[in-house]
Write a structure and sequence with these properties.
Elements lengths: L4 E7 L2 E8 L5 E2 L2 E2 L11 E5 L10 H5 L7 E4 L16 H14 L5 E6 L1 H11 L5 E7 L12 H7 L6 H12 L6 H12 L3 H9 L7 H4 L6 E6 L7 H7 L8 E5 L6 H4 L1 H11 L12
Parallel strand pairs: 5-6, 5-7, 7-8, 8-9, 9-10
Antiparallel strand pairs: 1-2, 2-6, 3-4
Length: 290
């Protein structure tokens, strides 16, 4: 895996530490960074983590991509290294941050890769039809239409899912994943889930997950690939067929056999293979389910 560089990108109320690979330039608090090269060939991949995740959620996926692939990832507002950024922490604020990152880095052609909550953020930015956006990869995404099970009672319970390490561990082992994660990976997930400000931790379950963004989804006009875990209990394939595909009808849905909700951690080979196919590189036979 090639070396990543951390760029400091100004956003509302402070800065985001953005990890880049592949020679991306941009701006920081001290002014312009190195000039960004023209995005020739395959597009830059811009990764967005799930509620409770971090830039590190994508480690195993990025490691499986060609060393020359341009990538961008960061902790979203309110999480990890960005936990002190002020609110609001709603979906529009996260989409604004994403737009600021893409602009600051001079990314001329890019694909958004969003997991779960990050997938909903990606949908909102894509609906704005920004210049240079070449496609979306939605990984176990929150659908634009909230499913019926997202009730007030469900959301209130979810708001306490990250109150303690024990609260994180039970759903991690029995709901979010289809098979046990390696212990170092599991420990990292627990740390990430607890590394949030109170507002950010509660914003998604109390409001974001229930927000209907179907009008925005209908405006998406770039190619869309959706990856679903066969055994995902959070956003199972049938939920995405019923609550996402009707609003992004040109999207392709691929099902990853045997996987749960945390696809970047459970099935990084399949996620990386899908990204290589999207960017015109060959994937090994059988890496992505159909």
């Amino acid at each position: 895996m090639s070396t990543e560089t951390t760029r400091t990108v100004p956003v509302r109320g402070g800065f985001l530490d953005v990890r880049t690979r592949g020679g991306l330039g941009g701006t920081g608090p001290g002014g312009p960074g190195p000039a960004a090269p023209a995005d020739t060939g395959a597009p830059t991949l811009v990764f967005l983590h799930y509620w409770g995740g971090s830039a590190a959620t994508w480690d195993a996926v990025v490691e499986r991509l060609p060393a020359t692939r341009r990538t961008v990832r960061y902790d979203q507002r309110g999480w990890g290294a960005a936990r002190e950024l002020p609110g609001p922490h709603d979906l529009d604020a996260l989409a604004d941050d994403l737009a600021a990152v893409v602009t600051a880095l001079g990314t001329r052609r890019y694909v958004l890769v969003g997991h779960s909550m990050g997938g909903k953020v990606a949908q909102l930015l894509a609906a704005r039809r920004p210049s240079g956006l070449a496609g979306l990869v939605l990984v176990a995404p929150a659908p634009p239409e909230p499913p019926a099970h997202v009730t007030e009672e469900y959301r209130q319970a979810l708001a306490h899912a990250y109150d303690s390490a024990q609260d994180v561990g039970t759903p991690l082992d029995h709901v979010l994943t289809a098979a046990p994660l390696p212990e170092p990976v599991r420990a990292g997930v627990v740390r990430d889930s607890l590394a949030a400000g109170t507002q950010a931790r509660r914003e998604w379950p109390l409001r974001g997950i229930a927000r209907n963004v179907t009008d925005a989804a209908r405006r998406i006009d770039v190619p869309v690939t959706v990856l679903a875990g066969e055994r995902d209990q959070v956003e199972p394939p049938h939920v995405l067929r019923d609550h996402l595909l009707p609003y992004i009808p040109h999207a392709r849905l691929d099902v990853v056999p045997g996987a749960g909700h945390l696809l970047p951690l459970e099935a990084p080979d399949a996620v990386a293979a899908s990204l290589r196919v999207l960017t015109g590189e060959r994937a090994e036979v059988g890496e992505v389910g159909a």
